[in-house]
């Protein structure tokens, strides 16, 4: 078995703790790159993605990877979750620390009506 990076170890630790506390709620998973930020709501029981949003806009100029873009993605995911009938989620930050763009996305999703 290959040795896991610190990031992968942190991601596994966070996800294991979440699944123990989830109580059947879907998971709001965040992925961050240098250029974009992505969010998706995953129903682990059914094994499917309920809603997704990202700063990557197809066919148009992308909105970038700054705090404003993360906040916009947070609002979008909250709106799409409401349309899908999801109101409470567990926040899966992955291996990322909860500050900067990840925190901006979470705060915007809370303002948009998601509870976590």
TrEMBL record:
What keywords is this UniProt entry annotated with?
Ribonucleoprotein, Ribosomal protein, RNA-binding, rRNA-binding
InterPro entries, from UniProt? Ribosomal_L18, Ribosomal_uL18_bac-type, Ribosomal_uL18_bac/plant/anim
Cellular component, GO annotation: ribosome
Per its UniProt record, what Gene3D superfamilies does this chain match?
A: 3.30.420.100
Coiled coil location: none
Q: Which family does it belong to?
A: Belongs to the universal ribosomal protein uL18 family.
Query: Which NCBIfam families does its entry note?
Result: L18_bact
What is the purpose of this protein?
A: This is one of the proteins that bind and probably mediate the attachment of the 5S RNA into the large ribosomal subunit, where it forms part of the central protuberance.
Describe, as the record does, how this protein assembles with itself and its partners. Part of the 50S ribosomal subunit; part of the 5S rRNA/L5/L18/L25 subcomplex. Contacts the 5S and 23S rRNAs.
Q: What is this protein called?
A: Large ribosomal subunit protein uL18
What is the species listed in this Swiss-Prot or TrEMBL entry? Novosphingobium pituita
């Amino acid at each position: 078995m290959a040795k896991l990076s610190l990031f992968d170890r942190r991601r596994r630790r966070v996800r294991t703790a979440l699944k123990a506390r989830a109580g059947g709620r879907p998971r709001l998973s965040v992925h961050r790159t240098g250029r974009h930020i992505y969010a998706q709501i995953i129903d682990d029981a059914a094994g499917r993605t309920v809603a997704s949003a990202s700063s990557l806009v197809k066919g148009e100029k992308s909105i970038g990877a700054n705090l404003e873009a993360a906040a916009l993605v947070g609002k979008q995911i909250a709106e799409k979750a409401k349309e899908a009938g999801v109101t409470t989620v567990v926040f899966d930050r992955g291996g990322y620390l909860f500050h900067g763009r990840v925190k901006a996305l979470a705060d915007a999703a809370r303002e948009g009506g998601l509870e976590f």
